[in-house]
Amino acid sequence: MSENPHKSQKKYWILFTALFLLAVALILPPLINMNRYQRRIADAIGSALGRRVHLSSVTLRLLPFPGLELSDFLVEEDPAFGVEPTLRAQSVTASIRLSSLWRGRLEIGQISLDQPSFNLVRNNEGRWNIGTVLLQASRIPNAPTGQRRASSAPRFPYIEASNARVNFKIGNEKKPFSLFNADFAMWLANPEEWRLRLEAQPVRTDIDLGLSDTGTVRVQGSIHRASALGNMPIDLETEWANAPLGQIGRLLIGEDSGWRGNLAIDGIIKGDVFNPQFKTRIQIAGMHRQEFAPLDAFNVDATCQGNYRYNARSVDDLTCLWPIQNGHFLLTGTIGDIEHPDPALTLRIENVAATFALSAVRLVRNGFADSAQVAGAMQGTLSWHRAALAPLSGEVAITGLALRTSGMDAPLVFPTLHLISTPRTPVLHKSPKARSPQKPAVPSLHLENVDIGLGGEGPLSLSGDFTRQSFLLHLTGDAAIARVKPLAAAFGPLLTNAAASLAPQGEASFALVVHGPWLPQTNIFGNPPPAAVAEGTFTLRNASYQAQFLPDPVEIPSAQAILTPAQIVWNPVSIVFHKLPATLSITTPIPCADPCIREFSLVTPQLDAAALQSTLMGAGEHGEFLQQILSRLDRNKVQWPALNGNIHTAVLNLGPLALHDASTSLHIEGRTVRFTSIDGHALNGLLHATGTMDVTGSAPKYSLDAQLLHANAGGLTSLGQDDTTSGVVSANAHVELAGYSGSDLATSAHGTFHWDWTNGKLDSASLPPHFDHWSADGTIEKTRLVIGQSQITQGPLRQAVSGTISFTGKPDLAAEPEENPPTRVAKTQSQ
Q: Which residue in 667, 670, 616 sits closest to 638, CA to CA?
C-alpha cells in the first residue's frame, strides 16, 4: 500500500522548517549587534539592584534557549560600604521568557552566574550591604518566578550562581573568612516571599586549610517583603555537617585546638531580620584529644534557643539543654555585646552521673584510671557574670560518690563533696611597703576539705582548687598501704610503678600537693599530654617491696620520699634484705628519659661474704642467689633497672680477707654492671679495682682490673700459706672469669698479674728463708698462678724463680741463680 502523498509532503515541510530555524539560530545571533543595548541592559539590572552595573559586551543566544550572554559583569558597591565592587563575574547568562515578547516587553526568566565573587560587607554602623539590595528588590512589584502566564507585573527571574566565592569584609578590612564552591539559588515563590538556597564550604584564606576538611554549610528558607530591612520576616534552616573539630579550630581561631571529632550543627532562624529567634542542635561525635583516644566514647548532643537583638547586639533568653542519662545540664542567661561578650549565664546541674566527670577527665588524661568505676550524682548551680566583682558564684555537690578500681575488695565510699566558687577579690601584699593589690586571682571552684578513712592511724584529708586552665589537689594524712595501693596505681601521677611493687602491708603518710594543666600549653601535633606534678613528702612504715628482678621481697621499716617538679628523692630508706640491714637513697629525675637512669647510694655497716652467700644463695650448692636472679629475669623478660650509684660498707669480709671502708661506684643497665671503681683498705694496704659483669649469656661473665698497694703479705692466706708468710706486697692483675659458683669462677679464671714483694718470706724449700725483693710477672690459668718472668733478691744474690702457685695447694716453685747479675746492683748491696 503506497504512502499518502500529502502526508509525505507535510513531513518534508516540517523537516525544512526545523533546518531553517536551526540555521537561523546559528547564523543570525552573530549578525545582530546587541552592544547597542548594552547600556540599556546594564541600567535595567542596576535599577533592580539599586547599584550601578557595568558590562563589557552582550551577545544574543538562541540555543538551547533564547538568552543573552553578558561578559565582565560588575556591580558597584554602595559608597556607604566601600569602593570595591560588590559582585564580579566573567560570564553571566540571562535566558529570555519568550511569552513576554508577545506583550511587547523583555522578561528575564533565569540569570546564571558562573564563578562569581561576592563581597559581603558590614560597615561601622553595623549595617550589611546585602540589606540595601534586598530592600530595593522589596520595593519593586514582581510576579512569582513560577507564574506560567505573563501579567502586568514582570516575573522575578530565577537567580543562580555556581562555584561562587563569598568574601567577608568589615569596613575596608577584608577578613580571612570566605565561602568557596558556593552554589546559590533565589526565586520569588509568591508576590511577598523569596525563597533561597545556599550550599558552600567555609575556608580561611590566611592559612593552609584543606577544603575537604571544613564540612559543608547549607542554608535554605524564605525572606518576605517589608517596608524596612529590619522588619523583613525570615524563616531559615541552617546546617553545618561533616566538620572535623581540628579543622574547625583552625578555621575559627587560626590554630589547631588539639581536639578531634565530627561536628554537626543544624538550626532554625525565624522572626524579623533584626530580631530573630533561633533554635539549634549541636552534636559532636567521638570527641577526643589528638594525642590519644579516650577509654570511653564521648559524645555531645545539646540544643540551644534564644533571641538575637540587633540594636543591643545581644543574645537574650538563651537556653541550652544537654541531657545526660537521667540528668542534664541547663544553661540560661544572656550574652551582651557579642563582639566583646559580656555574658550573664547560669548553669544548672541536675542529677548528672559522676561517670560523666570521670569521662570528662579521661578526655584530657590518657589512660586515666582505666579500671576505675564510680557511682553518684552531681547537683548544683553555677553563675557567671563577667562584670561582677566575683564573676563565678554557686556550688556543686556530689552525693553518693563511690569509687571502685582494680585490686579493691570493696568500693571506697566518700562523704558528700562540695565544690564552692571562690571570690575574685584583690589580695594585699603582706609587706607594709606594698600599697598596690596583687593581681586578682583566677576564678575557680574550691573543693572543701573532706576526710576519707583508708585504714591509717588518722584519715586522709582531701581538698583542691579547679580553674579553667588547671587543677590543684591537697592530700594530707595517713592510709594503709593495702587500701591506698590500688588507688595509687589507678590515679597516682608519679607513684604508679612504686605502688605496684609494694606489698599490701604497712602504712603511709602523705603531705602532697598534686597540680597541673588540663591541656598542653602549646597546640602542636605530637605534643605529649600534660603530666601532673606532685610536690611534698610521704613516708612508708613497715612496708615490703618486691622488685621484679629480685627473688624475695625487701623489708622497709621506714622510708621517706621528697617530691619536687624536677625529681623524686627517696632518702633515707631503711631496708632489711634477708636480715642484712642497709640505708638506701634513690633519686629519679622528672621527666625520666628512656632509659630512665636513677642515682642511688647504699650504706651498710658490715657485710660478710660467707654470711651473705649463706643468706642469699641458700645452704645447698645449687641455690646460688645470682642464678635465681638471672633465671627470674629470663622468665619474666625483665631487665635490670638503669642505675648509677655507689655502695659503701665499713667492713666487707671476703673469707679471711677483710676490706675496710669499702666503696663501689657502678652503673647498671639491662644485663650489664660496670664497676667504675672499687676501693677499700685491705691487709693494711689499698685496694683499687674496676671491671664489668655481663649476664646476657648463659652464665655471668666478669672482667676485672685490680691494684693492691703496700699490703701485708702475711694476710694473703688465699695463697695457702701459714703465718710464716710476711712482707709488703704491691700487685696488679687483669682477670676474666665466668660462672655462678666459686669452683666455676676458679676454673674459668684467666688473665695476667704482676707483683712486687719486699722484705718477705715464704715457706718454700726452693726459696731463700728471707728475701729483700721479689718481682714477678705471670698468667692466671684456671686454678693457679703461672710465674713467667720473676726475680728474687737476697743481698747480692739474685735468682730466677719459676713454677706455679695453686689457689688451694702448696706452691710448686724452682729458683736458679741468675746469670751475669748486674754489677751495679751487687756493689750497692755490698756497701
A: 670
What region, left, alpha or beta, does residue 258 occupy, with left being phi > 0 and alpha being psi -120 to 50 degrees? left
The reported pLDDT for the residue numbered 688 is 93
For residue 335, the one-letter residue type is I
Q: What is the pLDDT of residues 263-276, one digit of tens each?
A: 999 999 999 998 99
Grid coordinates representing 823 are: 754489677
pLDDT digit string, tens, across residues 458-474: 999 999 999 988 899 99
β partners of residue 519: none
The helix/strand/coil state of 437 is: strand
For residues 149 and 99, the answer to whether their CB atoms sit within 8 Å is yes
Whether 371 contacts 302, CB under 8 Å: no
Give CA–CA dist 480/716, Å, rounded: 53
User: Which CA distances in Å does 330 have to 16, 47, 214, 524?
Assistant: 76, 50, 29, 33
Q: How far is CA 811 from the centre of its chain?
A: 69
| Nearest of 526, 392, 413, 415 to residue 468 by alpha carbon | 392
CA–CA dist 476, 13 (Å, integer): 106
Is the Cβ–Cβ distance between 433 and 395 less than 8 Å? no
DSSP per-residue letters across 4-23: PHHHHHHHHHHHHHHHHHHH
Exposure on the CB side of residue 382, measured as CA atoms within 13 A: 23
Say if residues 262 and 286 touch (Cβ distance below 8 Å): yes
**Bridge partners for 197 per DSSP:** 185, 220
Query: What is the average per-residue pLDDT within 289-303?
Result: 88
Q: In degrees to the nearest 10, what's the CA dihedral of 669, 673, 676, 679?
A: 140
Q: Determine the Cα–Cα distance for residues 561 and 488; give it in Å rounded to an integer.
A: 15
Reading the block at residue 803, the C-alpha cell is 713454677
Among candidate residues 277, 290, 383, the one with its CA nearest the CA of residue 330: 383
Hey, which of 21-25, 170-174, 315-319, 433-437 has the most confident mean pLDDT? 315-319
468 within 8 A of 349, measured Cβ to Cβ:
no
Q: Tell me what pLDDT residue 524 has.
A: 46
388: Cβ contacts below 8 Å, ≥ 6 apart: none
> Does residue 141 have a pLDDT over 90?
no
Cell of 788: 713467667
φ and ψ of 230, to 5 deg: -65, -20
pTM, two decimals, is 0.76
